[in-house]
Design a protein that fits this description.
The chain has 149 residues and is mainly α. Helices cover 49% and strands 3% of the residues. It has one domain. It has helices at 2-10, 35-55, 67-74, 78-92, 103-112, 118-121, 125-130; strands spanning 19-20, 27-28. Helix 3 (67-74) packs antiparallel against helix 4. It is elongated and about 50 Å long.
Amino acid sequence: MDDVRALFEQSEDCDAELRRNPVTGGIWMPKYDSTTEQLERAHRALVARHAFATEGPPDCQPLPTNYGERERLKVGFGLGYVVALFGRSLAAGDYAVTNHPSFAVYAAGILALAGVGPEFLGYQPSLAQRYPPCRLPGLCESGYWANPS
């Protein structure tokens, strides 16, 4: 957690009234918002990034942990787009990697969605071969996953 604290202390806005979380990009106000909460969220995002480095596709690293990183990946569609959606879904679940499907399961679920599958992502047979489409309970059409139980 010391490395996360250092990121916050070394950021350009460390004395500002309105700050940006250097990992997640979230806006917060130290006067009103919990610094500890921001540090913990950044830490969880970095833990998720570390897990993704092991389980995610080696050709699409690292896990995007903020809006800008996710949007840059969406430009090329294909695998990058799926990684961006995965990062967004993890962020929405507060980076609780143990409660979220693995990237492979999630990617297969995305490819199985009507209107979001291979046609939308740009037809790439290799993507469907790599992650055979398979329905994922709890995955909504916008790509967010919520535990169905």
